[in-house]
Design a protein that fits this description.
Layout (H helix, E strand, L loop, with lengths): L1 H24 L5 H18 L2 E7 L1 E2 L4 E2 L1 H13 L7 E5 L6 E5 L4 E6 L2 E12 L11 E11 L3 H23 L3 E4 L15 E4 L13 H15 L2 H7 L4 E7 L6 H12 L2 E4 L8 H10 L4 E5 L2 H4 L4 H7 L5 H9 L17 H9 L9 E7 L7 H4 L6 E4 L5 H12 L7 H10 L4 H8 L8 H43 L1
Parallel strand pairs: 9-12, 11-14, 11-15, 12-13, 13-14
Antiparallel strand pairs: 1-8, 2-3, 4-5, 6-7, 7-8, 9-10
Magnesium ion binds next to helix 7.
Length: about 500
């Protein structure tokens, strides 16, 4: 009996070794031969072998999305088996401060769980590109293969795999280096690059603490964000996808982009900065969405000038509009000539609405979608209605509270005799936090806090005068219009 079991064990491990060798050899065979040999060897081997194999492929579902299980296995093996592996790959880890070692291709390691031995192999196959005319190399399909004895099937499938997934996910979260993604134009997907997004390490220092904002507003936004990030069960219970839309609107330089960075830092999310004008059409927009990962913020800056999203509706209602109104619509989205030149994008309003709350938007989960604009009144109401853009945040001119935060940030001042003058002037002038910040910035090593505050007072006085002038012009204009109106009425 013992001899029999030894014979099976020997045969099993011989077959496992053969499989391992085969994995290495097959990269040198033509694809057709590979497929043929693979099919029959697998059939014969599985007939005799007492071993079970489970594969974890990097991409599932026609390469739409990187498999989370693969990522978890990779992280788990990197932490648990890098000591026993002989060939390793090194990558920069979190904060670029440490190296993370993972198994190199075709490397095999062993692991043990509850006294059961398992083998892991990191491998890849080449799959041909769809077009025979393609210049680009074949696509690599990477996978991890787990091998274990049949008699431990229950332990492995019920306990070991759960342990690997749980530990792998925790390690990934710990080692996660946050990223700033962009959909760069110019690259073709999927033949050249493996993903549609390019990324760099996200390292923006903005926090809510350093933001010039009224304390109550700040508190409300922070609470809203934190509540969202802890509401997985709540969203599941009410049957809603775990995502939330924020619309940040206000004049230039009031901190919209800064707030996005602060949000990302608060929740430790990645940022996907979506350049809509570089998206070819709705299909490409959907692909981009599917490739985003959980715990992320998808940002569309200056949504009003990304695309002429009112275009379709405009055509339908063109005849109903006066010339003046049509002109206004055409002007929508023209900011600093960003739209000029024609992006060639055919993303439509309905494509964008689908992006925000269509069925596909639910995959991934734990996501914020943030739009920023300087002209909220020019956006299509459908785009920003509650449910799509759940929270509207208006960022406005600097208040005294905002100034105090900036004075503390820039000059480390909590109080100063000039604060009273600033308090009086800041109520009269329209000045953005960006302008206040610029004035508080020392321009030479000799600039002390007093000098910086005096600069700010000067700027505030100038802004207050401009404001006064604009108001009196507006009053005169109003009076003239009223006079014209009464002349016309009398004439009739
Ligand atoms: N509320 C704020 N708190 C702290 N700093 C601010 C704030 N608003 C603006 N700033 C400063 O001004 C600079 C410009 O701000 P930011 O880019 O966030 O403005 P914005 O609202 O996104 O402008 P735009 O509409 O032109 O994109 C930032 O680098 C930041 O230093
Ligand atoms: Mg901005």
């Amino acid at each position: 009996m013992k001899m029999m079991s030894e014979m099976w064990t020997t045969m099993g491990s011989t077959l496992a070794s053969f499989m391992f060798l085969w994995t290495i050899m097959r990269q040198y065979c033509p694809y057709g031969v590979q497929r043929f040999l693979e099919k029959y060897t697998h059939r014969i081997m599985s007939y005799f072998s007492p071993y079970i194999r489970i594969s974890f492929h990097e991409y599932m579902g026609d390469r739409l999305k990187r498999s989370e299980a693969y990522g978890a296995v990779e992280a788990y093996l990197s932490a648990n088996t890098s000591k026993s592996a002989k060939r390793l790959k090194a990558e920069m880890g979190k904060d670029s401060s440490n190296l993370v070692l993972t198994m190199d291709e075709y490397e095999r390691v062993t692991d043990e769980h509850e006294g059961v031995k398992v083998w892991w192999v990191c491998s890849k196959v080449m799959s041909p590109t769809r077009s025979s005319m393609s210049y680009y190399p074949e696509q690599e399909r990477r996978f991890y293969k787990l091998t274990f004895h049949n008699k431990y099937r229950e332990v492995i499938t019920e306990s070991y795999l759960e342990h690997v997934m749980r530990e792998g996910k925790e390690i990934r979260l710990r080692n996660r280096q946050r990223k700033l993604y962009t959909n760069s134009p110019g690259y073709k997907w999927p033949s050249y690059k493996q993903t549609m997004w390019s990324h760099i390490v996200f390292e923006h220092p903005a926090t809510f603490e350093t933001m010039a904002l009224e304390p109550e507003k700040k508190k409300e936004i922070i609470e809203d964000l934190v509540t969202f990030s802890k509401s997985k069960d709540f969203y599941a219970r009410i049957g809603k996808a775990w995502k939330r839309g924020y619309l940040l609107h206000g004049p230039p330089g009031t901190g919209k982009s800064t707030m996005i960075a602060a949000m990302a830092n608060l929740l430790a999310y990645d940022v996907y900065d979506l350049e809509l004008t570089a998206v070819k059409d709705n299909t490409e927009l959907r692909k981009l969405l599917i490739e985003t990962t959980s715990k992320s913020i998808i940002v569309i800056e200056d949504i009003d000038c990304s695309l002429d999203l009112t275009g379709q509706r405009k055509k339908k209602t063109e005849k109903l509009l006066s010339d003046e109104e049509t002109d206004k619509d055409v002007v929508v989205g023209r900011k600093e000539g960003k739209e000029e030149g024609g992006s060639g994008s055919r993303v439509t309003l309905s494509g964008l609405l689908n992006f925000i709350d269509g069925i596909w938007s639910a995959c991934g989960g734990e996501r914020l979608i943030v739009f920023t604009t300087n002209y909220v009144e020019k956006l299509d109401p459908a785009l920003i209605r509650r449910g799509r853009m759940d929270k509207h945040i208006q960022l406005s001119y600097c208040t005294f509270d905002g100034f105090k935060v900036l004075a503390n940030n820039y000059l480390k001042l909590q109080t100063h005799p000039l604060f009273d003058t600033i308090k009086r002037l800041i109520g009269e002038a329209k000045i953005t936090p960006a302008d206040v910040a610029e004035n508080l910035m020392p321009k030479s090593p000799l600039d002390d806090p007093h000098k910086c505050l005096s600069n700010l007072i000067e700027a505030l006085e100038k802004a207050a005068k401009t404001e006064e002038l604009e108001q009196s012009c507006a009053i005169q204009h109003e009076e003239l219009l009223q006079q014209n109106g009464s002349i016309k009425e009398n004439g009739e």
